[in-house]
TrEMBL record:
<dbReference type="GO" id="GO:0006631">
    <property type="term" value="P:fatty acid metabolic process"/>
</dbReference>
<dbReference type="GO" id="GO:0005739">
    <property type="term" value="C:mitochondrion"/>
</dbReference>
<keyword id="KW-0276">Fatty acid metabolism</keyword>
<dbReference type="InterPro" id="IPR001753">
    <property type="entry name" value="Enoyl-CoA_hydra/iso"/>
</dbReference>
<comment type="function">
    <text>May play a role in fatty acid biosynthesis and insulin sensitivity.</text>
</comment>
<keyword id="KW-0443">Lipid metabolism</keyword>
<dbReference type="Pfam" id="PF00378">
    <property type="entry name" value="ECH_1"/>
</dbReference>
<dbReference type="InterPro" id="IPR052377">
    <property type="entry name" value="Mitochondrial_ECH-domain"/>
</dbReference>
<comment type="similarity">
    <text>Belongs to the enoyl-CoA hydratase/isomerase family.</text>
</comment>
<keyword id="KW-0496">Mitochondrion</keyword>
<dbReference type="InterPro" id="IPR014748">
    <property type="entry name" value="Enoyl-CoA_hydra_C"/>
</dbReference>
<dbReference type="GO" id="GO:0016836">
    <property type="term" value="F:hydro-lyase activity"/>
</dbReference>
<keyword id="KW-0809">Transit peptide</keyword>
<dbReference type="InterPro" id="IPR029045">
    <property type="entry name" value="ClpP/crotonase-like_dom_sf"/>
</dbReference>
<protein>
    <recommendedName>
        <fullName>Enoyl-CoA hydratase domain-containing protein 3, mitochondrial</fullName>
    </recommendedName>
</protein>
Length: 247
């Protein structure tokens, strides 16, 4: 069990992030996440739509404001949880990702997409501006690209998404599995404790100014050397052998 697959599996509903879907996604992300064996989580989906975003039936006026708040709150919690997890999370996208579905892709650490994938925040067209997806979008795309998506609702092609940094790789559909597994296997070769430290530190320093970021990461490098795996890795390198990670 070196990597876990989480598959959005409600293709009839275009894998909409209903309250129950968000709750089970949170459960799956947190499940046994501290296990020594778990190194990578891959999020993929069944059907032609990766994820269509919120289930609009849950956002109609039949449901009260309290329910609406609950939906957006757990959504924000899931999106931020992805970056707080101690293992890398890869989005494996084959199809359309819209609104909160696009937010999900933007929130993952790495995203591999097939050539037919598309990414959009079309909420503006139905009178519900994609303000929460914009948080993730504005942090992974240049401002003017994000705003064009948000103001027009027009989709980015996979190639455009790659060019602007929303995804890390674009491959033909028949190579999607292979490419995602290649990245996962590479990650699995590293020490879990070192990766966890590195991921947490990366997101922390991104919000800091340059001097603070260097002060903080300098201390982290020193701490990293005190980890058993830090010493083992350096010794193995010097001795020209493969490291034996403690976990």
């Amino acid at each position: 069990g070196r990597y876990r697959n989480i598959i959005l599996n409600n293709p009839r509903k275009r894998n909409a992030l209903s309250l129950s879907m968000l709750q089970s996604l949170r459960r799956d992300l947190l499940h046994d996440v501290k296990s020594r064996d778990l190194r990578v989580i891959i999020i993929s989906a069944e059907g032609p739509v990766f994820c269509s975003g919120h289930d609009l039936k849950e956002l109609s006026s039949e449901d009260d404001v309290k329910h609406h708040s609950q939906v957006f709150e757990i959504c924000a919690e899931v999106m931020t949880l992805i970056q707080k997890l101690p293992v890398p999370v890869i989005a494996k996208v084959n199809g359309l990702a819209t609104a909160a579905g696009c937010q999900l892709v933007a929130s993952c650490d790495i995203a591999v997409a097939s050539e037919k994938s598309q990414f959009a925040t079309p909420g503006v067209n139905i009178g519900l501006f994609c303000s929460t997806p914009a948080v993730a979008l504005g942090r992974s795309l240049p401002r003017k690209v994000a705003l064009e998506m948000l103001f027009t609702g027009e989709p980015l092609s996979a190639q455009e998404a790659l060019m602007h940094g929303l995804v890390s790789k674009v491959v033909p559909e028949d190579k999607l599995e292979e490419e995602t597994m290649k990245i996962s296997r590479k990650i699995c070769e590293s020490s879990k404790s070192v990766l966890a430290l590195g991921k947490a530190t990366f997101y922390r320093q991104m919000t800091q100014d340059l001097d603070t970021a260097y002060r903080m990461t300098t201390q982290v490098m020193v701490d990293n050397l005190t980890l058993r795996d830090g010493q083992e890795g350096i010794e193995a390198f010097i001795q020209k052998r493969k490291p034996i990670w403690s976990h």
